[in-house]
Amino acid sequence: MKFATSVVLASAFLLQDSLTIEERATATPVKNTGKRGLSFNNPAYTMPFSLSGQNSQVSWAYNWYQTPGSGFNPALEYVPMLWSNASDLTGQWASNAQAAINSGSKYLLGFNEPDLCLPGAGSSCIEMPSAVKAWKQYMEPFAGKALLGSPAVTNGGSPLGLTWLQNFMGNCTGCHIDFINIHWYSNKWAGANYFKQQVQAAHAMSGGRPVWITEFGLDNSTPYTAAELQSFLEEVMEWMDEQDYVHRYAYFMDTTGALMNSGGTGMSDLGNVYNSYPEVSSASSSAPASSVTAVLSASSTASTAVPSAVFSSSESAIFATTSTYTSSSRTTSASTSSLTSSSSKSSAVSSILSSSSSTKSVPVATQTASEAAGITILSAYFADKDVTTAATAAFVQNGNLVINTYTLTSALSLQQDPWWGVVKTLSVLYSDAANYTHIFSEAEQSGMYTVNASAIPSSAQTPSIAASYGASVDVVGVVWGKQQIKTASVFGRIYYQQATKWGFEMSTQLFGVDGLWGNEKVGIVWYRDASKVLKSLVAREGQWVKF
Ligand SMILES: *[C@@H]1O[C@H](CO)[C@@H](O)[C@H](O)[C@H]1NC(C)=O
Ligand SMILES: *[C@@H]1O[C@H](CO)[C@@H](O)[C@H](O)[C@H]1NC(C)=O
Ligand SMILES: *[C@@H]1O[C@H](CO)[C@@H](O)[C@H](O)[C@H]1NC(C)=O
Ligand SMILES: *[C@@H]1O[C@H](CO)[C@@H](O)[C@H](O)[C@H]1NC(C)=O
Questions:
Q1: Which end of the chain is more exposed for a tag (fewer CB within 10 A), N or C?
Q2: Where is the Asl1-like glycosyl hydrolase catalytic domain positioned along the sequence (predicted)?
């Protein structure tokens, strides 16, 4: 139904253009059998691929999640993934996986980078016994109903990467692993040669199973040109298409500035190459490209429902951390183990919510009469982008905050990644029924959170620290990375800056703590001016701001 609407809108759109209508109105989704897939967050971005007249090689897609979201290209096979053993994901898995199978999915993917334990990396970091247990409990029941893909491992050196996978297969006795699933990132110098070696190494340990490469790309540890990236991609795609044991692959990723153009209105040049290389015929290459734009914009207009089930990937995380783990792969086990031991991701994640059990007697926790009024979002930022309005629509449910950090981009209806290449944080300043203010701040892809209006964790409450140095504002709340700052001396420094009106730099030094280890951060200072109007100073790490 939705697709039919898109086509109608699309053809109206096309009338304005110079090419003939027939030529363009024929660009409809068509299935093909190519090995290429799309790794996406925004289902609308699957639409430009695999249309008639493109000789498309793109036949499937996945979003690190269990359901594709609305607006997904009907020509593509959706492949669900059980991202980790987290109960919010395993709880829905059986029904989502079965629903996908009923709709034609033939494959299911196991965990995402369980071998990598790096906070904010977008990896699932699962200890071996837990991974085996979760596989047996959640994946095995689907053996024979779909083909099961192994946990997707990084190209990190032992004990990560293929070593981890080998150990998993050794430990998971009686498990049905139908194909091997790997990721690869490195720099342009390592390039295609290292890529092929890694795929061959996976083949060598696969026991004859097919190999999928569900994320790959050049990392940005060494800058590369668009031409270098394109020639890397062409070389490895051609090679993979020739290897019988490589069944499927997905470049990272189908988003703006990568396979989509920067405006998100159609394929980028690289996207065109990915879609059709090496068979782009001159007759069909230009016409579909612009009609795709029309289809896409029409379809995003038509789909008013916000897709709720799209996994916000590790897009940025991967790039931000790849250089870290690829370099660790070439270093000693000593540095690898320090990498592994820094695996505070899951514990850090639950900080705000788990602390609700130890809620102290703060005024807000005792509200009863007025709790029906619930939570009001005063201001919200995703990275340094103001998303206050969209956050209110997306996250306030029955007066509570319900936030799924796996789906932020789609929940906030963002067409573009606000800070490509970095793990972003969602920071929300909210008030309760009694007008106390609190802060929620977490990294993308770190979990699903509910802040119950009648049991707001005391840790969320903002401190009340009076102005000093003659400052004429009231600082309401401060966040650095994903950490709320409550230190009086930091408030003092901020008041000092307001009083002097000098510029200051958003830095770990200013805030006194690294609020998101290993990643570039956004700093937010919410304050009320002399007229009590809520304002904010927001900037990225290293940038200067001024009251
Ligand atoms: C998931 O695995 C981790 C080990 O990495 C374990 O600590 C945790 O309890 C597991 N979660 C569930 C819900 O079983
Ligand atoms: C099980 O995994 C551990 C590492 O977690 C590894 O040392 C061991 O060799 C594996 N066992 C088998 C049978 O592969
Ligand atoms: C909270 O603030 C709003 C707006 O300033 C005001 O209308 C309301 O009465 C206040 N509520 C309480 C309980 O103080
Ligand atoms: C919120 O907390 C109250 C009190 O603990 C509880 O009765 C209520 O069921 C909770 N609501 C939700 C949506 O969890």
A1: N
A2: 50-274
Neighbour-count burial of 421, counting CB atoms closer than 10 A to its CB (0-12 exposed, 13-18 middle, 19+ buried): middle
Q: pLDDT tens across 435-476, in order?
A: 899 999 999 988 889 999 989 988 999 998 889 888 999 999
**What's the pLDDT at 367?**
31
Rounded distance between C-alpha atoms, residue 85 and residue 26, angstroms: 44
**Cα 431 to ligand 3 centroid, rounded to whole Å:** 10
Residues 310, 294: Cα–Cα separation, whole Å: 23
CA of 353 to the centre of ligand 4 (A): 13
Give this prediction's pTM: 0.54
Instruction: Tell me: pLDDT of 15 over 90.
Output: no
pLDDT in tens, 51-91: 999 999 999 999 999 999 999 999 999 999 999 999 999 99
Q: Which residues line ligand 3 (CB under 6 A)?
A: 434-435
As for ligand 2, residues whose beta carbon falls within 6 Å of it are 128, 167, 170-171
Q: Which CATH class is domain 10-300+348-355?
A: alpha beta
Q: Token pair of 121, please?
A: 């990396």
Closest CA to 88 of 279, 353, 302, 330: 353
HSE (side-chain half, CA atoms, 13 Å) at 459: 14
Hey, where are the domains in the chain?
Answer: 10-300+348-355, 369-545
Token pair, residue 49, equals: 């691929």
State how far the Cα of 182 lies from the Cα of 111, in Å rounded to an integer. 11
Which residue type is seen at 433?
A: A
Number of CB atoms found within 10 A of residue 362's CB: 16
The amino acid at 484: Q
Residue to mutate (ligand 2; options 150, 158, 169, 171; most atoms within 8 A of CB):
171
> Is residue 110 very low, low, confident or very high in pLDDT (cuts 50, 70, 90)?
very high
